[in-house]
Amino acid sequence: MKVLVLGASGATGRLVVTELIRRHIETRIVVRAGVTLPSEIRNDPFIEIERGNITDFDNQKLARVIQGCDAVVSCLGHNITFKGMFGAPRNLVSDTVKRISGIAEEKAVGKLKLILMSTTAYTNTVAGERNVLGEKIILSMLKIFLPPHRDNIEAADYLQNNNGKDNGRLEWVAVRPDTLVDETGVTPYSVHESPVRSPLFDAGKTSRINVSDFMVDLLETETTWLRWKFRMPVIYNENTR
Q1: What are the residue ranges of helices labelled H in the chain?
Q2: Within 13 Å and on the Cβ side, how many CA atoms surround 126?
Q3: What predicted TM-score, i.e. pTM, was given to this entire model?
Q4: In this predicted model, what pLDDT tens digit does every residue of 80-104 receive, in sequence order?
Q5: Interatomic CA distance for residues 150 and 61, integer angstroms
Q6: Which among 187, 203, 232, 239 is placed 20 to 30 Å from 62, CA to CA?
Q7: What is the DSSP letter of 231?
Q8: What are the residues whose beta carbons fall under 8 Å from the beta carbon of 102, sequence distance 6 or more?
């Protein structure tokens, strides 16, 4: 197996890469020019590094980067700065998801698995999820006034509406953590079909390292992938339920 990680220099993406290395899984990462990676990632024999901004790759280059990989893990996100939240590229996540899907369907690469890092702020109406009035109002306002939130919603919507059948060339899972926190090691966590608490009024916690552990489990364990493909599992640290 070979895995492409996008957003590999981010807080969660770096942990995904570290976990892939720990399990001796070949990994290709895309990081911006000038980003300094830890030596344990930079010098690991399982790691192949592609430098550049994913938004600058045309579809041919993106297809070449994906070529030879069995899966893509997208931990792409927007920097928590004014420019990062309101400047370009506003559709970083959704545009990349659409391009990966298009490349897979055009048979420019082999059959592909895609794991998208999403959020409990996404409401999976296909699975019957509904928000109470207060949640509807706040989430609607976030979608209007906060471009990164809208971007994440559009990415998950695209997968749900366009790639939901076994006869396609792209299989996917959208992993939805709750409030992200940092921990030094994997701790007990639980995975659910839908949120078991309000992401706005009763938010739980999910450590980034638990997210990375679950994502790599999805790729390494076929039964886990079959359980969750075309679904949007929600992950919580157990001690916050």
Answers
A1: 11-22, 39-42, 59-66, 82-86, 92-105, 133-145, 147-162, 208-220, 222-228
A2: 12
A3: 0.93
A4: 554 555 556 779 999 999 999 999 9
A5: 27
A6: 232
A7: B
A8: 59
Tokens of 107: 């048979």
Largest interatomic CA distance in the chain: 52
Which residue bears the tokens 């399990």? 23
Residue whose C-alpha is closest to residue 156's, from 194, 114, 116, 120: 116
**What does the block give as tokens for 173?**
């899972």
Angle at 180 between CA 170 and CA 65, to 5 degrees: 35
What is the per-residue pLDDT across 113-164, written as a single tens digit (0 to 9) for each? 999 999 999 999 999 999 999 999 999 998 988 888 999 999 999 999 987 7
* Phi, psi dihedral angles at 14 (to 5 degrees): -65, -35
3-state secondary structure 72-131: EEECCCCCCCHHHHHCCCCCHHHHHHHHHHHHHHCCCCCCEEEEEECCCCCCCHHHCCCC
What is the token pair recorded at 169? 């060339």
